[in-house]
Amino acid sequence: MTNPVQDAYPVNDVRGLFPQLAVPVNGMPLVYLDSAATSLKFGIGLRKELDFASHEMAAVNRGAHTLAAEATEKFDEARATVARFVGARPANIVWTSNATDGINMVANGFRISSLGRTATDGRFRLAEGDEIVVTEAEHHANLIPWQELARATGAVLRVAAVTDGGVLTVDAVRAVVSDRTRVVAFTHVSNVLGIVNPVTEITALAHSVGAIVVLDACQSAPHIPLNLAELGVDFAVFSAHKMYGPTGIGALYGRDEALAEMPPVLFGGSMITYVDYERAEYLPAPAKFEPGTPRLTQAIGWAAALDIMSAIGREAIAAHEEALGSALYDLVEPLPGVRILGAKHGVDRVGLVSVAVDGVHPHDVGQFLDSKGIAVRVGYHCAQPLHRRLGVDSSTRMSVGMHTTLAEIEFAVDVLSGVRRYFGEA
Q: Residue 418 has what DSSP assignment?
């Protein structure tokens, strides 16, 4: 199989940026097909993070000395880099621990307003019988916070169905949206299926009834050129560790109006303009959502990773991964006893394929692949309801990265083709 897109893409140069690819696994070259869980890290990004910690670390936005000023400048530049990467302004980016933290922040903003702890009678106040809409395709991180919010406020959680092929349609969302809908939370790209959902259409539908839109962009931000302002969503979350950056940091994107209306949910220093023993007044976003010492080295490392991706080219990376994802699907599809979860035709996809192998548990599939140096994800990928909807308990997921080659895809599928025979199921 040839891949004209890959032929024009400097994949060997890209691979040289990832030191982990040079480390054998079980005596075999590493074939890393688990980018959807956590990506590999750029060596340059790791060094930038270390250099900052070793030579430029100081308290930001606080000190008046030279080192503090320089650290603050670098920290602000990192926020600007992350914002630019997703089509936002720095003031729209709130640092979080990860994407899950960001979703919980928004849900807790509703909780605080709804329990009457703020004077705001805006869109963040839920009443009994108001509705929160999610979909069958959600990661637990974009389901459980809304379940808990509904339980705390008396709101009703409604679920938009996917098709048997895992496709989320605008009509399916329309079927559960009403004039009582206050939140519509959904994923841009399913972490199980790799299917890209119609964000602008769903967002327009939600806004037509005055609902706030919360987008899980964890699987789109690393793989699709993203402009959150153009998509029109109110909030979006994404994580550095899926974008070739460090763990421990993510971002909550919010439109100006949404961030201004949302109450603070964490409290402490660095977020206030005035404090006495009865009350506090808060800085505007993003500072009002970032109390305490921020994630300094992580922000520097994340920005360095995104600079490398931008230099290589977002469109080039996306085209490379899309071509590999299509090749992966086409190679796996004819394997006997191997079922791919999610449709291919009539939908946009990223480079991700999840499979159920007849008669073989995903953990056994994963261990067999691992014995050949192939790293994949096994289990229900924090999406139990979606797996049950598709008639399986769990699956084996293969996901490509910007460093993946066609030869690695072909090797992995060849090994996968021998799984059922090895376990006596062929």
A: T
Can 218 be counted among the known catalytic residues? no
Enumerate the β-bridge partners of residue 213: 184
Per-domain residue ranges of the chain: 4-41+313-421, 48-309
153: which residues sit within 8 A by CB, 6+ positions away?
Answer: 110, 111, 114, 115, 126, 127, 128, 130
> How many CB atoms neighbour CB 160 within 10 A?
23
Q: Kindly report the backbone phi and psi dihedral angles of residue 354, in degrees, each rounded to the nearest multiple of 5, phi listed first.
A: -110, 140
Q: Which of 382, 385, 392, 411 is catalytic?
A: 382
Residue carrying the six token digits 């206050």: 182
Distance from C-alpha of 262 to C-alpha of 102, rounded to nearest angstrom: 13
Model pLDDT, residue 122: 79
How confident is the model over 142-179, as pLDDT tens digits? 999 999 999 999 999 999 999 999 999 999 999 999 99
Return the H-helix or E-strand segment holding 113: helix 99-114
Residue 288 per-residue DSSP state: G
Query: Angle at Cα 198 formed by Cα 194 and Cα 203, nearest 5°?
Result: 130
Tens of pLDDT, residue by residue over 89-100, are: 999 999 999 999
Q: Is the pTM of this model over 0.90?
A: yes
Is the CATH code 3.40.640.10 the one for domain 48-309? yes
Residue 68: CB atoms within 10 A of its CB come to 16
In our burial notation (b when 16+ CB lie closer than 10 A, e otherwise), range 321-359 reads: bbbbbbbbbebbeebebbbbbbbbeebebbbbbbbbbee
Q: For the domain made up of 4-41+313-421, give the CATH fold.
A: Aspartate Aminotransferase, domain 1 (3.90.1150)
CB atoms within 10 A of CB 417: 17
Residue 119 is classified by DSSP as: S
Q: Do domains 4-41+313-421 and 48-309 have the same CATH topology?
A: no
Rounded Cα distance between 268 and 291, Å, is 5
Amino acid at 415: V
With bands split at pLDDT 50, 70 and 90, how would you rate the model's confidence at 118?
Answer: low
> What one-character DSSP code corresponds to residue 25?
B
